Amino acid sequence: MPTVLERLNFALQHAMETDERVYLLGEDLLDPYGGAFKVARGLSTRFPERVLTTPISEAAIVGIANGLALRGLRPVAEIMFGDFVTLIADQLINHAAKFRWMYNDQVRVPLVVRAPMGGRRGYGPTHSQSLEKLFLGIPGLRVLAPNSLGDPAELLESAIRQDEGPILFVEHKILYTRPILAAGELADWEVSKMGEPYPTFVLRVPQAEARLTIATYGYNFELARAAAHELIYEHEIFAEIVLFSQLSPFELAPLFDSLRRTNRLLTVEEGTLTLGWGAEVAAQAVENTPGVKVCRAAALDLPVANSKTLEAAILPSQEKIIQIALELAGR
User: Residue 238 sits in a domain of what CATH number?
Assistant: First the structure.
């Protein structure tokens, strides 16, 4: 099976091949380097006029991309490490997300900003964060995160080709080398897919009475799925998993439907616990599902350490998810 990285690379190649309006901007994108995580490998060779290597200025990258989008092009801006999205906040929040309203609905900003996020590689406090929560709930800005169950190529191409507004596209670094899940790997699960072009997946064990719902996205799905398997085989506790591709705006109907069956919610994310994605999902779940019990699994409210041992202690793990799930299920 192809990896997530290979599918993202394919999406960029196909988008640039079929639409001359697609440009790619970022640092160190030219071959043979092809970007820090090689998602852009081969693109500058095939499309030398439309792969633009830039100075080390994330604000300038997104500012130029905003201008290209306003002129009718479809730029994709790559931020080398997701930690540096702090440097594009003004261009993304105060400019790209607002131009449509500021100019009386006469302009569109079809911009995609790709950002490798997350830890587990020992890169330390300024190169390991999951900062997507800083951009949730911004009017006019969509936040997406690929996973290994859906096709990352379809998700990225839809963002580039179909959407008329700015998108922050969050790619967890550990996902890059993960193969796309084959049907046989989900033999125990019944998978429902709803909502296009940015789908939500619901995984259930057929004819089993689930005790809790696990809501998650991106790489966290790998941890949640492994934890759900152990809960079944070691503790005879069944869970449903609701896997989101779109983090914001919040579209939680599939989650509410699951909670009507389980009445228990566990959110799993790699960002810090306080005021995160899971906190807002939990708040909306409580408002829409009376009596639901809620717990959250996330990183500790600390910078991510370089040390492998400390990093593992800070970030959520399969073991931590299982521990919280057992408490939530009354064990």
Answer: 3.40.50.920
